[in-house]
Amino acid sequence: MAKTLQLNFNTASGKKVTMTVDEPRADLTEQNVEAAMQEIIASDVFELNGAPLASAAGARIVERNVTELVNG
Question: Which long-range contacts (CB under 8 A, 24 or more apart) does 12-19 make?
Answer without folding.
Answer: 12/51, 12/52, 12/53, 12/54, 13/48, 13/49, 13/51, 15/48, 15/49, 15/51, 16/57, 17/46, 17/48, 17/53, 19/46
